[in-house]
Specification:
The structure holds two protein chains of two kinds. Chain A is an alpha/beta fold. Chain A has helices spanning 2-24, 70-78, 103-121, 134-144, 164-185, 189-200, 209-228, 250-262, 297-305, 323-326, 328-342, and strands at residues 26-33, 36-44, 50-55, 80-84, 93-94, 126-132, 154-158, 283-288, 311-316. In chain A, strands 1, 2, 3, 4, 5, 6, 7, 8 and 9 form a nine-stranded mixed beta sheet that branches. In chain A, β3, α2 and β4 form a beta-alpha-beta unit. In chain A, α2 packs parallel to α11 and α5 (164-185) runs parallel beside α7. The N and C termini of chain A lie far apart (50 Å). Chain B is mostly beta strands. Chain B has a single domain (36-218), classed as Beta Barrel (Porin). In chain B, a hairpin with a 3-residue loop joins β4 and β5 (94-109). Classes of the chains: A alpha/beta, B mainly beta. At the A-B interface, β1, β2, β5, α3 and α8 of A face β7, β11 and β12 of B.
Chain lengths: 343, 219
């Protein structure tokens, strides 16, 4: 009985300690820029003086979508993680004209977020940008705009869509190649045959915006077949966001994000591969081998194009568009190794 | 048996009296009372908690007596102006302050002690940021913006259902629920809908502005 009492006291002390650590840095900072008030949710270890600023996907996503899964737990233990809701997405709000929803404005917003983080947490704060998917598009634009890259320590691009016309062509080729492989292996044959027929009919020299949308939805479909056939690793629990009690109102976030996405049609023609040579800061490119949404060839191109002395490309063999979910351990390890090297 | 017939007879006389007496002095209707007050839980997206206080100004009541089989059913149709104020909070993102004035059509089934209502109104939403807000000016310097908030025009529509504590008496307290759909205009260069759920109580205080008079008709 005595030992049980001691164990209970110890358990209580440990759980209280864990809770106190969790709350050590847990705050929301708003950045107001050109009509928009954008929340940045700060979590993790700010004492490290290293902040990974997560630039979410979409357009139409939100920052806290990325605070889920196991990879976040390990990263928050070591660094401060900043989850930013971009203009018109998540719980960002404001009154501005539709003409203020464009990629130049969003680069300006990102620059404002970086400046605010440094003003609040100290100029000696090392900020590493982590852009996933659409966040890769936005961070790539930030990197090639003037010398904004000098305000951050490094750039991590995870399955980032920095060249959408090229993405559409590469994805179409990838659908055909992978469909043939999977049909030959006897995996989900009917489904892959349908994808093969559909992709073979696309004229890669003339892909319309509507076809671009179709490529995007077929990409997630294809990923589903690979997951069902056990080729992709499945995600592994960890932190989950509360739908009803979390900071993000899913209705407002979803509808507002969709409206913002519709205003960003310009990105369909955005091609930045040829300008990536302007990037000189350390870069890490993380790609899923089976990413049909943003094919890994874009990662290879980015790795070859940037002028950075410190650069690395990692292709995750059992991952699709989100290697942080599919292979969270390896993803975390690569990020930590890179950040510790450049911080 | 004899007593039951006598009871029915008495009821018919009362109904007839009510029908014939629709032109009697309305001030004699003992249901006429003061503007009620309501307090409710106001859950934005149902679960983000808040409080709402409101009142009702009854523009018009029409009492309809319907005879069905051997029973008389009294429906009270009301047109009501409903001013209100709500405050709610989302953890770590915002506090919303919503001021609204609604117009409601309400159908009180007094015999069963319940009511249904449908309404629409105009509102103004002030959204305060939870957390420090910083602004970067043109020179690149960062400044804090205290009590940062933004305002939005936010009309709404709703459905409401309530249950009186007793029957045949609007002076009774009532519990009610209300489902609101808010339309937030100019929010991120778009119109964004949102919803909230209310669960509250409505009652008549001992003093206040009097409700409108009740007109009666029968079918």
């Amino acid at each position: 009985m005595k030992y049980l009492g001691i164990a209970l006291i110890l358990l209580t002390a440990v759980s209280c300690q864990k809770k106190a650590d969790d709350l050590a840095i847990q705050e929301t900072v708003f950045v107001r820029n050109n009509g928009a008030d954008m929340p940045v949710y700060i979590r993790g270890n700010i004492a490290s003086k290293v902040m990974i600023l997560v630039v979410h996907g979409g357009p139409g996503g939100n920052g806290l979508e990325y605070r889920s899964g196991r990879y976040v737990e390990a990263l928050e233990d070591k660094y401060a993680m900043a989850y930013w809701d971009q203009r018109g997405q998540g719980m960002s709000h404001g009154q501005y004209a539709a003409s203020h929803v464009n990629i130049e404005q969003m680069v300006d917003d990102l620059d404002a977020v970086v400046k605010v983080m440094k003003a609040k947490y100290g100029e000696d704060l090392s900020i590493v940008l982590l852009g996933h998917s659409w966040g890769g598009t936005l961070t790539a634009k930030y990197m090639i705009t003037e010398r904004l890259q000098d305000n951050v320590k490094a750039w991590i691009e995870a399955d980032g869509a920095h060249d959408i016309p090229k993405l559409n062509k590469d994805a179409t080729r990838m659908f055909i190649a992978e469909a043939n492989t999977q049909i030959a292996a006897g995996n989900s044959v009917d489904q892959w045959q349908a994808i093969l027929d559909w992709a073979s009919a696309i004229d890669t020299n003339n892909i319309s915006v509507d076809q671009g949308g179709e490529i995007n939805s077929k990409a997630y479909e294809a990923e589903g077949y690979l997951r069902n056939d056990g080729i992709l690793s499945s995600s592994s629990g960890g932190i989950t966001n509360s739908l009803f009690f979390g900071p993000t109102n899913p209705i407002i976030s979803g509808i507002s994000g969709n409206a913002t996405s519709n205003l960003l049609n310009e990105v369909e023609e955005l091609s930045m591969t040829d300008e990536l040579h302007k990037v000189t800061i350390p870069c890490l490119f993380l790609w899923g081998k089976y990413d049909f949404v943003v094919p890994p060839q874009l990662g290879v191109d980015a790795y070859n194009e940037v002028s950075s002395a410190q650069k690395k490309l990692v292709i995750f063999e059992s991952s699709g568009h989100s290697p942080m979910d599919n292979e969270w351990e390896k993803f975390t390890q690569e990020v930590i190794e890179f950040v510790d090297l450049v911080k | 048996m004899l007593n039951r017939k006598a009871g029915k007879m008495k009821k018919y006389v009362i109904v007839l009296g009510l029908v014939m007496g629709s032109g009697v002095a309305i001030s004699q209707d003992d249901r006429q009372t003061v503007m009620p007050v309501s307090v409710s839980y106001f859950g934005n997206f149902a679960t983000h908690p808040g409080v709402k206080i409101g009142t009702e100004y009854h523009l018009k009541h029409i009492s309809v007596l319907k005879e069905k089989k051997r029973k008389t059913k009294e429906l009270l149709k009301s047109r009501i102006i409903v001013p209100s104020m709500s405050v709610y909070a989302h953890p770590q993102t915002k506090v919303g302050w919503l001021s609204a004035v609604d117009f409601e059509l309400r159908r009180n089934n007094l015999s069963k002690g319940r009511f249904w209502g449908v309404g629409a109104g105009l509102g103004y939403l002030r959204q305060f940021n939870v957390g420090e807000t910083y602004v970067v000016d043109e020179s690149g310097s960062v400044k804090k913006a205290p009590l940062a908030s933004k305002g939005y025009f936010s009309p709404q529509t709703y459905l409401t259902y309530g249950k009186y504590f007793g029957k045949n008496d609007m002076k009774n307290k009532a519990l009610y629920s209300r489902l609101n759909v808010h339309y937030i205009f100019g929010y991120n260069a778009a119109m964004v809908p949102d919803f909230s759920l209310e669960l509250g109580m409505i009652w008549n205080p001992k003093w206040g502005i009097r409700r409108s008079q009740i007109k009666k008709k029968s079918t």
